[in-house]
Structure formats: structure tokens, C-alpha cells
Design goal:
It is built from 3 helices and 12 strands, in the order E-E-E-H-E-E-E-E-E-E-E-E-H-E-H. It is of the alpha+beta class. The strands form 4 sheets. It has a 4-stranded mixed β-sheet, with no helix packed on it. The protein has a 4-stranded mixed β-sheet with strand order 9-10-11-12, covered by helices on one side. Strands 1-2 form a two-stranded antiparallel ribbon.
Length: 181
């Protein structure tokens, strides 16, 4: 999903499926398409650190085998990390006269989603007076945001979206930009 938050700020969400090649290729795409910020899920890591992105990018990831974080390609952005955990990261990005909180989440499909959602809810309560954008992979299936049948996790995600009056935006017809081992 590509998102432009103002006339001059552009970001894209990436789920890299722990692929080294996808990380390398998307690093080139970030430069080519002039993305300012990139919430990243399931990045490739070596010795617990995210690698394969140009060194000119700022990386905001948990120091041990991160599942969610950010690549900041625009060096002029003011970035303040609110929270940097293994599966959830939140940044405030200041650009011109606007501030946005962008949250990157990756919820493991093998873990019960309720604990992760509670952590996200606490964060949303702390930041309720700000412009917030959540980008990530909840590993929940629902006809609301995709063509697949629902699973047991979607009810909890939909309940949270209703509780916080969140708008769900997903292009369920978009193709993968990279598909590989």
C-alpha cells in the first residue's frame, strides 16, 4: 500500500517475509520511487539486525530479531520513536507543519492476537489526540479487507477498529510486488 500523507510526504508498507532478496530489491525501490518512510514487517535480519538496506537510510527496529519497524529514507524528516518493540513500533514524524504518528505492527499467526491487540490499544489510548496511521500485518483474515473467508482473529481486530473508530483501508485486489522463497 502506498500512502501520501501530504503533498510532499510519501510512504509504502512492506511485508518482506524475512527475505534477504526482497529487502535488497525494495531498498532500491525506496530510492527509485522517493519514499520518505517505510513501515516494514518481518524484515530479513542477520545476527539479529536488519540488513540489506542502504546505509543512508535510518532504521528503527528492536535490537533483537525485529518483526516490525521503520526505514526512514528522507533525511530531513524529524522522527521521534514512541515505542520500539519486537512486533510493534511507533514513530512521530514531523514534516513541515504537520505531525503524524505512524505505527508498524506484525502479529505472529502462531501467537494469540489478544495480547498484541491490548498492547496496540494501550498505545492508541496514549496517542488519542494525534493523527495516527497504523500499517501492518495482523495475520487476520476477513472479507472486510480481503477476498478470503474470516478467521477467529478478525472479530478481535474489527472490535478494536470499532472501539477506536478506525478506518480500514486495504487494496485486496493488489498484486504482490515481490514473490520468492
Amino acid at each position: 500500500m502506498v500512502l501520501s500523507l501530504s503533498n510532499h510526504l510519501c510512504g509504502v508498507h512492506l511485508n518482506l517475509n524475512h527475505s534477504r532478496r526482497a529487502s535488497s530489491l525494495h531498498g532500491q525501490d525506496i530510492l527509485r520511487f522517493h519514499y520518505d518512510f517505510v513501515p516494514v514487517n518481518d524484515p530479513y535480519s542477520f545476527d539479529s539486525s536488519v540488513t540489506e538496506f542502504p546505509i543512508s537510510f535510518r532504521k528503527v527496529f528492536h535490537p533483537y530479531n525485529p518483526l516490525a519497524g521503520f526505514i526512514i529514507a528522507n533525511g530531513s524528516l524529524k522522527v521521534f520513536p514512541f515505542l520500539v518493540e519486537r512486533n510493534i513500533a511507533a514513530l512521530e514524524i514531523g514534516f513541515e507543519d504537520e505531525n503524524f504518528v505512524i505505527i508498524s505492527v506484525y502479529f505472529l499467526p502462531s501467537k494469540h492476537i489478544k495480547e498484541d491487540l491490548n498492547e496496540l490499544k494501550k498505545l492508541l489510548l496514549q496517542l488519542c489526540d494525534r493523527n495516527i496511521l497504523i500499517m501492518g500485518d495482523f495475520n487476520a483474515k476477513s472479507r472486510v479487507w480481503g477476498p478470503r473467508d474470516s478467521d477467529h482473529r478478525d472479530d478481535l481486530v474489527l472490535e478494536m477498529a470499532d472501539q477506536f473508530d478506525l478506518l480500514i483501508v486495504n487494496k485486496n485486489y493488489s498484486n504482490l510486488s515481490f514473490n520468492g522463497p
